[in-house]
Amino acid sequence: xxxxxxxxxxxxxxxxxxxxxxxxxxxxxxxxxxxxxxxxxxxxxxxxxxxxxxxxxxxxxxxxxxxxxxxxxxxxxxxxxxxxxxxxxxxxxxxxxxxxxxxxxxxxxxxxxxxxxxxxxxxxxxxxxxxxxxxxxxxxxxxxxxxxxxxxxxxxxxxxxxxxxxxxxxxxxxxxxxxxxxxxxxxxxxxxxxxxxxxxxxxxxxxxxxxxxxxxxxxxxxxxxxxxxxxxxxxxxxxxxxxxxxxxxxxxxxxxxxxxxxxxxxxxxxxxxxxxxxxxxxxxxxxxxxxxxxxxxxxxxxxxxxxxxxxxxxxxx
Amino acid sequence: xxxxxxxxxxxxxxxxxxxxxxxxxxxxxxxxxxxxxxxxxxxxxxxxxxxxxxxxxxxxxxxxxxxxxxxxxxxxxxxxxxxxxxxxxxxxxxxxxxxxxxxxxxxxxxxxxxxxxxxxxxxxxxxxxxxxxxxxxxxxxxxxxxxxxxxxxxxxxxxxxxxxxxxxxxxxxxxxxxxxxxxxxxxxxxxxxxxxxxxxxxxxxxxxxxxxxxxxxxxxxxxxxxxxxxxxxxxxxxxxxxxxxxxxxxxxxxxxxxxxxxxxxxxxxxxxxxxxxxxxxxxxxxxxxxxxxxxxxxxxxxxxxxxxxxxxxxxxxxxxxxxxxxxxxxxxxxxxxxxxxxxxxxxxxxxxxxxxxxxxxxxxxxxxxxxxxxxxxxxxxxxxxxxxxxxxxxxxxxxxxxxxxxxxxxxxxxxxxxxxxxxxxxxxxxxxxxxxxxxxxxxxx
Lengths: 317, 445
Hints:
The complex is a heterodimer of chains A (317) and B (445).
Chain A: H1 22-44, H2 46-69, H3 80-90, H4 98-113, H5 126-137, H6 139-142, H7 155-161, H8 167-172, H9 184-196, H10 203-219, H11 226-234, H12 238-245, H13 256-276, H14 283-300
Helix pairs in contact in A: 1-2, 1-3, 1-9, 2-3, 2-4, 3-4, 3-5, 4-5, 5-14, 9-12, 10-12, 10-13, 13-14
Chain B: E1 25-27, E2 33-36, E3 46-47, E4 54-55, E5 60-63, E6 72-73, E7 78-87, E8 93-101, H1 121-130, H2 143-146, E9 157-161, H3 171-178, H4 180-193, E10 198-204, H5 208-217, E11 224-229, H6 238-246, E12 261-265, H7 266-278, E13 284-290, E14 298-303, H8 308-314, E15 324-327, E16 334-335, E17 349-353, H9 357-360, H10 371-375, H11 382-390, H12 394-399, H13 410-414, H14 421-444
Parallel strand pairs in B: 1-14, 9-10, 9-12, 10-11, 13-17
Antiparallel strand pairs in B: 2-8, 3-5, 4-7, 5-6, 7-8, 13-14, 15-16, 15-17
């Protein structure tokens, strides 16, 4: 009788894998958001910490509830829901009512993300989708950036209507705004973490910011005035958007060519919204609209393979 | 930093330290020897011996059956025991000549070779054909066919592929350290076929001692240059290598000769040299037995047809049960079904890994991160091609140049979602090629 043969594992090549997983990537993005989060909490006070915790926590819980209801394996371990929740929190005004946070994370996780197929299938950034939903639904509360005894218009709005603004305070983050968007320094520290670990590269943020600068110099009405330009770049959600939301893998093109086109569209749209619309801000809408354009961008920027040779034109015209 | 490179590629753990510093050890086979009739690309060879015949080492036992085919020679003296299907490292069952070793290692007497200096290009190619030389890096393409391009006058470069970009493998490295002159002489033989071409010895810069050695030995050769290439997988891929050395890019529908290049692997050049200078067929090669599950990982000079089982015991046996055994390197090698398979012309290594990454990789959703696009040496979008492969969407697959995939596996390696990208694309490539063939046939009617 043949003795029992030990079976070997057989699989297709390659037989080795890099250690990086989706979870590692999400964890790094989460960590890279912490400097901005920390500054926001320090700047806006303890209530904003509650906003961060509730928004992030409820996003994770919504994700868990969804997988339970759909009888799927839990996906909260991949940390993508936590990242979405934290991003949404950083896009919230510091005094937003807690129930809006829970509603916002519901919209982000259930409506934008999971109804369209879950991780990797959503057509727009869930956090931004939820933010825009809240902006439309609760315009007053979402635009109320008052904290402590500070209230009134943001510096960015002042810049637009000709009042005074303080560009250096805008860079440091000592101004009004959403919890995570005010400090350029904190955001750039986080962005450096992402760049250092190769999670993002400069293609999208670089073309986005450059295009915006060019657009603003041409149409902003102040030429290339460094004070105005710095304030325009540091104000609002431009930095947070450029490094953390425009670079969202799922909702941006996959090729470098596509990413450049995407960055240019982002820059132009942000410029159009900021210069020509009635409001001072436009980053969220610019990113969402660009997200929707991604399939078109990908269609317009097909890859050329290595060694590509132009097909010789045949008889057919 | 080296200037010679290509775009894309990865830097996996190289594992070469396990075996690279130990000298090559010659091992003689003990048990039966198995010679698959198909160990090259093209038509299987035709057996010219019968069961019961006695043979000597270096004797022709199967002859090329067509232009793209190759002669096969015995590596020992003994008796033909059977001609029957046998498992080969790639997993297939292939009709093979089984020879019982008489332990005497008697060799046939070879006809005296013509003086090398007086040989014509054609005579060199004929000698290579007669000796059954095939690409020993893994592809197994008959070398004589490679050396007979349509427009020989258009060949500008003969590239010696001494890159060895696959992790863990060190057989080419040991060859260069121990017999560098055989590699150089092999290259010179090829250069004699293409007198106006220049020779390039391409080595990755993680082997600086080999680069130095080759440079000093070719210092007086005006037509040979040594290039130190940036270490990056798959630098040894033919199209990537040609591009790195010459900046000429070819696609899947072109041959290296279309870019004025002929690429031969390190070990193949040694075989060419032997065929031309000594009129002898190659029945030995260097094989790396390595991996973290092997007690004494090292390189062996092996008679072809030997069972890998014998090499495992020569390498001190297994430390503990490996989860994965690969014939070849970890990136492009084949999972083996069993270890009682023969060393063939294209066997460069057997790798014993304690951990099978593929087994533990849990596939999750694609997040469109673009890492596969970044590393793809063919500049494709592996994530989308794999999806179209899974959906059998031929139109989209072809539109995105799916057939240009070189199956290097870099995409699967980097994928954070652990998708089996290379597997899906490979499978679809086969289907698409078969479909195209069928359609072409239909068109002829």
